[in-house]
């Protein structure tokens, strides 16, 4: 099983490992069913970390936008029939289907999460945790400089 970068699509020796989420698992199952699976281990090489961060940030923004639009569509399909003719089960079903379709569109630009990715902060890559002693030493050095 080769390690392949998801950005540059080259075989890499080391990098950050990509988490297998529901989208990746679905793609793997479909490829295995069609007997075209390569079963590569997905990575982000060290050279592509900045490009990955930009791509992931764009994906997260698009996902939020898709969810907002889907919720507005669903809300419109529920409220508009109430104001005009009363409750309609078909408008609720159609609104739910349309909302699911809108949210499914975000999978076309899916960028999977890298292990250690700090989710809510867009564009934040994991950094090594410094020991408390190192933090104290740096603070003391700053004080001495002043």
List keywords for this structure.
flat; 3 strands; 8% strand; 146 residues; mainly alpha
Give a quick rundown of the structure.
The protein is built from four helices and three strands. With 146 residues, the protein is mainly alpha-helical. It has one domain.
DSSP strand tally? 3
Proportion of residues in extended strands? 5-15%
Largest sheet data? 3 strands, mixed
Q: What is the string of helix and strand elements?
A: EEHEHHH
Rounded to an integer in angstroms, the radius of gyration calculated over CA atoms is: 22 Å
The CA-CA distance between the termini, in Å, is 55 Å
Characterise this structure.
The protein has helices spanning 22-33, 49-84, 89-104, 132-145; strands at residues 3-5, 15-17, 41-45. It has 146 residues and is mainly alpha-helical. The protein has one domain (3-112). A three-stranded mixed β-sheet has the order 1-3-2, with no helix packed on it. α2 runs antiparallel to α3 (89-104).
Please render the helix and strand layout as text.
Blueprint: E1 3-5, E2 15-17, H1 22-33, E3 41-45, H2 49-84, H3 89-104, H4 132-145
Parallel strand pairs: 1-3
Antiparallel strand pairs: 2-3
